[in-house]
Design goal:
By secondary structure, the chain is mainly alpha-helical. It has helices spanning 2-25, 29-39, 41-49; strands spanning 55-57, 64-66. β1 (55-57) and β2 (64-66) form a beta hairpin. α1 (2-25) runs parallel beside α3 (41-49). It is rod-shaped.
């Protein structure tokens, strides 16, 4: 019986840590902690499927870049210009 309690404790602890790590990587640490604590493996799955809040996609080359970037480091296009891509040279 003691083995069952220890097993389930470490089972939920592992998914809590995984959910917290995923939340940190995606820029949503508080949600990762809460989902991992309350839901365990389901919370880790929800954090895995959640949207990344730290990165956006470049409209020109479709590379993942930091949300706070002004210029894409790959194609050097200014971020925020929707229609014509203006290249800096």
């Amino acid at each position: 019986m003691a083995f069952d309690i220890v097993f389930w404790f470490f089972f939920y602890l592992a998914f809590f840590c995984l959910s917290t790590y995923l939340g940190y990587q995606k820029g949503n640490l508080i949600a990762g902690i809460l989902l991992g604590y309350v839901l365990g493996p389901i919370g880790a799955l929800l954090m895995f499927m959640s949207k990344d809040r730290k990165h956006i996609t470049c409209p020109s080359c479709h590379a993942e870049i930091n949300r706070r970037a002004y210029i894409c480091p790959k194609c050097h296009v200014k971020i925020g210009i929707k229609s014509e891509a203006v290249r800096e040279e």
